[in-house]
Design goal:
This protein is of the alpha+beta class and 290 residues long. It contains five helices and 15 strands. A hairpin with a 4-residue loop joins strand 14 and strand 15. The longest helix has 24 residues.
């Protein structure tokens, strides 16, 4: 970190002198780093102004997923879901973050049954009775990014699939309880993994969560098979996603070679995911998008 004089303006943009603002905060981070832990750099920590802008983006993301929830139904195509997201996002003044991101061709990801993530909407893929589908929505608003996803059960879903969907939501909620300032991302990751495994499921290892807000994907990368006391230190101002991908069978997955995006379970058993966006606060956490 760049050395700042105690009477200089604080790096966070508050306008306060450094000694009255983040000096003790930085000293605490430096001490924890000296103990061998991974700590966040200043560019990971959001300023109050940035947090407010990110929250406005999150409002749109939530509203778009609410709109999907009101309209999703058996017999509709995943392209129709994409159309819903595109129209509602535009109506609210946002931009769909996935569109053209590293070549991704659509505005949203729709992942059905054994599709773990990054399912590409298509007018040939129709939601059927008994399907479970994840709709992963991401929004840009005034250059700020938001990202969250929800699971939807279509028609008469089997008890086995519905249980998977419910347990994954519990995993997110249990992980969220571990998001506290001066804890570690591994505290959350271990809690998520233990709850999934206790219920007979496996957690995908290769794909995880991420920082978000100023960019679509930022540091830190967030694992859900990590260990308590490990991974990056959580401090006030950090924003990241909790989005475990939990499989009914093996944790192994593979990518569709034809489209280069769609991730499937290796054993073709169902997978489920919920995604929320979380801010670490001075006394705990705040869910920004869901």
């Amino acid at each position: 970190m760049v050395k700042i004089g105690r009477n200089d303006p604080c790096w966070c943009g508050s306008g306060k002198k450094y000694k009255k603002c983040h000096e003790q905060f930085d000293e605490k981070i430096s001490y924890i780093k000296s103990q061998g832990h991974i700590v966040p750099t200043r560019d990971i920590i959001k300023t109050p102004e940035q947090i407010q802008g990110i929250k406005e983006s999150c409002k749109i993301n939530i509203a778009v997923l609410d709109y999907v929830a009101q309209n999703i139904r058996e017999g509709m195509t995943t392209q129709e879901i994409d159309d819903l997201v595109a129209s509602k996002t535009a109506e609210l003044g946002g931009i769909p973050a996935p569109l053209n991101y590293q070549g991704y061709p659509k505005t949203v990801c729709t992942s059905i049954n054994d599709v773990v993530c990054h399912g590409i909407p298509s007018d040939k893929v129709i939601l059927k009775d008994g399907d479970i589908v994840n709709v992963d929505c991401s929004t840009i608003y005034n250059d700020y990014f938001s990202d969250s996803s929800r699971m939807f059960c279509i028609g008469n879903v089997s008890e086995e699939k519905r249980r998977l969907v419910d347990i994954v939501k519990e995993c997110v909620e249990i992980g969220l309880e571990k998001v506290v300032p001066w804890g570690f991302l591994g505290d959350m990751g271990q809690a998520v993994n233990e709850h999934a495994m206790k219920n007979g499921y496996s957690v995908v290892r290769e794909i995880g969560g991420h920082g978000v807000g100023l960019e679509f994907h930022e540091d830190p990368w967030v694992s859900y098979v990590s260990k308590q006391g490990e991974e990056m230190l959580m401090v006030p101002g950090m924003i990241f996603t909790i989005e475990p991908m939990v499989n009914m069978g093996t944790e192994k997955v593979y990518c569709d070679k034809k489209d280069g995006w769609t991730i499937y379970t290796a054993d073709k058993k169902p997978s489920a995911q919920w995604e929320i966006m979380v801010l670490v606060t001075e006394d705990g956490h705040e869910v920004l998008a869901y």
